[in-house]
Specification:
Shape: globular
Radius of gyration: 18 Å
Largest sheet: 3 strands, mixed
Strand order of the largest sheet: 10-9-11
Distance between the termini: 25 Å
Structural class: alpha+beta
Number of strands: 11
Length: about 280
């Protein structure tokens, strides 16, 4: 019964979903963010893209306007300590090799990207450094240490436009991600596009569906009071439609991350954002 009601509610919004986001403008600590922009040329079914911030309640939106009020910065501060923490057989910290985390400005906006024929995410780069340069154990993909560090590195790119490469070596990964985005799976027989392209703006379970943009990840969710990774959110969505989730950090989710990031080309990086 609950599944039937959910699908019925989504179907009601087909005609007017595109007008449901608000018209508020976002400025974080005085820096204006781009939350609305013309859809990139490779999108065929929508004309304008919107940050997920535009679909939140005024109370939730307000938490992102000032870093002092943003609950995600508790974890950013934890990552600042991790940055200096010596770990592994090489007895090194992040700071041992990198003069400042500010050196990573722009990185979040360009990921995922292809390196040596492999699609890599920020989590991949962090764990590669831990294993190869620090002699330390890799962090769990959506674990607290990893999401804190991705937030710290990601905030260095805040305000910069999302700009991932989808041609050349990245093309086959992008095509795979696109196919996954439009493939129906699970007991509810739904695809990512059914919610985030066909029905964004529709009220579902007392919340608005957004376009599913990832420009603000890792994001602090009021629902679980912690930072949430991109792949963790993908996993949650698949569980919601009664599908068996792909592995976090696996090829499927990395390809999907690239494709969805490309759907947000031109939106400002908002890391770390606040969502319901």
């Amino acid at each position: 019964m609950r599944a039937t009601l959910w699908i019925t509610a989504a179907a009601i919004g087909l005609a007017g979903a595109a007008t449901a986001q608000d018209s508020n403008s976002l400025s974080i600590d005085g820096e204006a963010m781009i939350t609305e922009v013309a859809a990139p040329d490779h999108l065929e079914n929508i004309d304008t893209i919107y940050s997920g911030w535009r679909f939140r309640s005024p109370e939730t939106q307000a938490l992102e306007v000032d870093d002092f009020d943003n609950p995600a910065f508790v974890f950013v501060e934890q990552a600042e300590d991790l940055w200096e923490q010596v770990d592994g057989s090489a007895e090194k910290s992040c700071a041992s090799c990198h003069e400042s985390v500010e050196d990573f400005a722009g990185l979040r906006a360009q990921l995922p990207r292809v390196e040596n024929g492999e699609l890599v995410t920020l989590e991949d780069l962090i764990n590669r450094s831990r294993v190869e340069h620090m002699g330390a154990e890799p962090w769990k993909w959506s674990g607290g240490q990893m999401t804190a560090m991705t937030a710290l590195i990601g905030v260095q790119s805040r305000g910069m436009p999302v700009e991932v490469a989808i041609d050349g070596d990245a093309a086959p990964f992008w095509e795979k991600g696109k196919d996954l985005y439009y493939t129906r799976v699970g007991q509810l027989d739904m695809a990512c596009s059914n919610c985030h392209e066909d029905n964004y703006g529709v009220m579902i379970r007392a919340d608005h569906l957004s376009q599913g943009q990832v420009n603000g990840f890792p994001t602090y969710r009021l629902k679980n009071a912690k930072l949430n990774s991109i792949h963790g959110r993908f996993k949650g969505c698949m569980k919601n439609i009664r599908a068996t989730p792909f592995k976090e950090g696996g090829d499927e989710f990395k390809a999907l991350e690239l494709y969805i990031a490309s759907r947000g080309q031109g939106l400002s990086v908002e890391t770390p954002s606040v969502r319901n």
